[in-house]
Design brief:
Layout (H helix, E strand, L loop, with lengths): L1 E7 L2 E6 L11 E8 L3 H7 L9 E2 L4 E8 L11 E4 L9 H4 L20 E3 L3 H9 L3 E3 L9 E6 L4 H9 L1 E9 L11 H7 L2 E4 L8 H10 L10 E4 L3 H4 L7 E4 L8
Parallel strand pairs: 7-8, 9-10, 10-11, 12-13
Antiparallel strand pairs: 1-2, 1-4, 3-5, 3-13, 5-6
Length: 257
């Protein structure tokens, strides 16, 4: 098989790799049919990864099941599946509790609101956020005690510090960014305000059924988030380029084959 390999800053290429093999009765082998990058991929491509190259890149996809172990009953060869970015076994105590990002079998390594402010320097991102009903701003100005909930997804500690300063007393801040660089937080302000800060990987797998049901309901159009649909063979050239949210699709998938 081929795998997309990160070689150096802003450079990826296809490389041959051994075909995967089932290692237990509870495993399945899948072949990606559509994939998209996330902020971790962007940081790696910019040269801020925490593992020395070269290594395979990519962890968010829709795939077709190729082979299953004898104990697998939820899917069968030929099925289309959503592959969560966080690897998990699905059977340990944490996975059964829905905490799939903290699976004990793996080595450590939609929200609704009445008033949403989305902050981003990118005008395309802001335009997309307005389509979903959010108020937008290019930069975040200090707004003490203005919001009950703040979500930081920049991976920058200075922006996380601004986010927590905007919280009302006993407010909650969720940091979904990938913080590859150290920094300082306004701990005294957080203490006096009574801030609850959660910095963690999301347990995606537990939320996939709800996300699929919401998309199928027509209440939310996932297509609005997709900026470009690009042929799978164009990955090495297109991935290092800056796109809002590209999706890379294998030939034949768009016509349903």
């Amino acid at each position: 098989m081929r795998e997309l390999t990160y070689v150096r800053k802003r450079t990826v290429e296809w490389r041959e790799a051994p075909d995967p093999k089932l290692r237990s009765d509870g495993e399945a082998i899948v072949a990606p049919v559509a994939a998209t990058p996330c902020d971790v991929d962007s940081s790696i491509l910019a040269g801020h990864g925490f593992v020395e190259p070269s290594f395979a890149l990519g962890h968010e996809c829709v795939a077709r099941v190729v082979e299953t172990g004898d104990a697998v009953t939820a899917v069968a060869p030929g099925d289309l599946v959503v592959v969560p970015w966080s690897i998990n076994c699905g059977t340990c105590d944490r996975c059964r509790a829905g905490l799939t990002a903290h699976c004990t079998a793996v080595p450590y390594m939609a929200m609704y609101a009445s008033d949403v402010l989305y902050v981003d320097p990118d005008p395309e991102h802001r335009a997309l956020a307005r389509e979903f009903g959010a108020t937008t701003a290019e930069v975040l100005e200090p707004m003490p005690q203005s919001y009950d909930i703040a979500v930081e997804a920049t991976g920058r500690v200075d922006q996380l510090g601004l986010a927590v300063k905007c919280l009302t007393p006993e407010g909650i801040c969720e940091s979904a960014g990938n913080h590859f660089r150290p920094g300082e937080l306004p701990l005294l302000d957080m203490y006096l305000t009574g801030v609850t800060l959660r910095v963690a990987r999301d347990s995606v797998r537990a939320h996939i059924p709800d996300a699929l049901a919401l998309a199928a309901s027509g209440k939310v159009d996932p297509g609005k988030v997709v900026s470009h649909v690009i042929d799978w063979e164009g990955l090495p050239a297109a991935l290092p380029e800056k796109h809002l949210k590209p999706v890379f699709v294998r030939a034949g998938v768009r016509d349903g084959s």
